[in-house]
Amino acid sequence: IEVVPTSGESLTLQVTYPSGATEDVVPDGDSTIRRVVLATATGTYRLDVSGASDATFDLTVEPSPPVAQLVVDAPIDGRISSTSIRATFQFTPADDSPVELAVAPSPGLDVVFDVTGPDGVASRIDHVGKGLPETFAMSGVVEGPFRVDVYAASGTGSFDVSVTPLPLVTIESGKSHRGRIDAPGDIVVVDIE
Fold first, then answer.
1. Among 29, 70, 9, which residue's Cα sits nearest to residue 152?
2. Which residues contact 124 (CB under 8 A, 6 or more apart)?
3. Which residues of the chain have pLDDT under 50?
4. Are 29 and 23 in contact (CB under 8 A)?
5. Which candidate among 6, 77, 79, 110 keeps its CA 20 to 30 Å from the CA of 68?
6. What is the C-alpha separation between 19 and 40, in angstroms, rounded?
7. Contacts 24+ apart (CB under 8 A), 188-192
8. C-alpha closest to that of 101 among 44, 177, 160
9. Is the peptide bond before 145 cis (omega within 30 degrees of 0)?
10. Do the beta carbons of residue 115 and residue 88 sit within 8 Å?
11. How far apart are CA 40 and CA 164, in angstroms?
C-alpha cells in the first residue's frame, strides 16, 4: 500500500485487518505512507486515510514482491537500492524454540525492518544506528508465517538477514542461575518452571 499526498498536509493511514486488529501507519520522511500488509487471512482489509486539513492523495495497492523463505541458520543476502524499496522474507517457526531475526547491513546503510505476524500486527524494529545489525527475538511462538520487510532508513547497499537459535536456560522457581552476555545485542531466554 502506498499513499502519496498530492496537495495539503500530511496524512495518516489506519489498516483494519479481517480479525478486527488495527494498525496506525505514519508517513515516511517524505510524507509518503508505505505499508506492507501480510494478507494471511481471507476477508476485507479496510484502509482509513485521514488528515488534519483538506488534502488530495494517490493511493496504490499492489501485490507484494516474491517472498524468500528464511530458514534457521541459513542467512540470505539482500540488497536495497532505494529508500522506497523493500526486501520481503517469510519465516515459519518449526516449534516454540527461541530464535533471533537479525538484519546486518553493509557500511553506509541504516536498516529498519517490520515483523508482521499471522494476525496482521506488525512490530517495527529500529533500535540501533547506521551500519549496525537490527535484531528481534521470538520465543514461545509456534504459529506462522511471519513476514519480514526490510527497508533502508538511509543509504543503500547490501545486507544479510538471518534466523538463529537463541540459548534457552530453564531454571526452577527458588533457584538461581548465572547468565552471560558475550557481546552487545546478545539475548539469553530464560524459562522458569
1. 29
2. 112, 113, 114
3. none
4. no
5. 110
6. 11
7. 189/98, 189/137, 189/139
8. 160
9. yes
10. no
11. 24
Angle at 89 between CA 86 and CA 94, to 5 degrees: 160
pLDDT at 64: 64
> For the purposes of burial, counting CB atoms within 10 Å of the CB of 68, is it exposed (0-12), middle (13-18) or buried (19 or more)?
middle
Residue 158 cell numbers, joined: 547490501
Judge whether 102 and 164 are in contact, CB under 8 Å: yes
C-alpha distance from residue 185 to each of 46, 74, 127, 181 (Å): 37, 20, 10, 8
**Torsion of Cα atoms, 115 then 144 then 40 then 80, to 10°:** 30
Sheet holding 76-80, edge to edge: 76-80, 157-165, 99-105, 134-138
Number of other CB atoms surrounding residue 116 within 10 Å:
22
Three-state SS letters, 43-111: CCCEEEEEECCCEEEEEECCCCCCCEECEECECEEEEECCCCCEEEEEECCCCCCCEEEEEEECCCCEE
**What pTM did the predictor assign?**
0.63
Q: What is the pLDDT of residue 104?
A: 92
Helices (runs of H) and strands (runs of E) counted in the chain: 0, 17
> Cα separation of 130 and 104, whole Å?
10
